[in-house]
Write a structure and sequence with these properties.
287 residues, Rossmann fold, Dna Ligase, domain 1, D-amino Acid Aminotransferase, Chain A, domain 1, 3 domains, four-stranded antiparallel beta sheet, 12 strands, 38% helix
């Protein structure tokens, strides 16, 4: 499809703590796959995207900065094809995400969105919290310290104070759930999906050892429902499988790095993008 012009927008390094190379690699791999299919693809840094007049018909976006999201939303409102949607990326900010997933009936660990300058220890104790996670909620994660495991409510209160003095005003406190960790990746528009248990020893890094077909379909349905609630097409995340068989989503990301399965994922993303382009053309919509 040589007449398809695509802008691929990298994620700024500040929004990729410990994953700068992997995040860039999946976007470049996807751009290469699209070029092999005849598309013209320009790759922009997040700052270049903000400061450039975007004439391409399709925008593939990993960016997360406020200025970039505002521009993405404007281009989407103008009728351009934007994947992931700027509105969807904004929905993945944790304080918004927790509310939207709860409203959609997505099972998650018990969680509270709190101000970091208030006393929450008694509330957590009253709710029976023991070990828990405190996560930055007012923006994407910028540092590894923006997510902290706490052994008890007293320690959670200390971490909230640290967040406040670092300028973080909102946090999510989530009860720690014991169980098997499962990582998942998906493309909502095509139904492509992959999941595996990262803590289990496997013969190869893409193995789904321990996940039978029934469980895989449950995880797929749950993650696709979450993606729909957040308005995200390309996604990944983590969930915990409890001893009694419940699946609780503990993390959900807009356009992850797909590091263990980058080759397959880049092909699937490219295919889904071109399917969307053909669909919009058939319906007479602007790309």
């Amino acid at each position: 499809m040589a007449d398809v012009r695509i802008a691929a927008v990298l994620r700024a390094g500040i929004f990729s703590p410990n994953h700068i190379a992997n995040d860039a690699a999946i976007l470049h791999a996807t751009a290469d796959e699209l070029r092999r299919r005849g598309c013209h693809v320009n790759v922009y840094s997040e700052s270049e995207f903000v400061g450039t007049v975007i004439e391409e018909d399709v925008i593939l976006a990993m960016c997360r900065g406020d200025e970039a999201l505002t521009k993405l939303q404007l281009l989407e409102d103008m009728g351009k094809t934007v994947i992931n949607s700027g509105y969807g990326i904004e929905n993945c900010v944790r304080m918004i995400m927790v509310r939207l997933l709860a409203d959609a009936g997505i099972p998650m660990p018990e969680s509270y969105v709190v101000d970091t300058d208030v006393e929450v220890r008694r509330r957590l104790q009253k709710s029976g919290f023991g070990a828990c996670w405190v996560k930055r909620a007012d923006s994407p994660v910028l540092h590894l310290e923006d997510i902290s495991r706490c052994r008890h409510p007293e320690e959670a209160q200390e971490i909230l104070h640290e967040f406040f003095y670092r300028g973080i005003r909102k946090a999510v406190v989530s009860r720690e759930v014991v169980g098997e960790k499962i990582r998942f990746y998906g493309i909502a528009s095509s139904g492509w999906f992959h999941c595996f248990m990262p803590m289990r020893p496997v013969e190869d890094e893409t193995s789904a050892t321990g996940i039978d077909e029934e469980l895989r379909e449950r995880i797929k349905a749950l993650s696709m429902k979450a993606a729909k609630a957040l308005r995200i097409v390309i996604f990944g995340g983590d969930l915990t499988l409890t001893a009694d068989g419940r699946c609780l989503i503990t993390n959900f990301d807009d356009w992850p790095s797909f590091a263990p399965i980058r080759k397959d994922a880049s092909k699937a993303i490219a295919k889904s993008v071109l399917t969307e382009v053909r669909s919009r053309r058939t319906k007479g919509k602007r790309l």
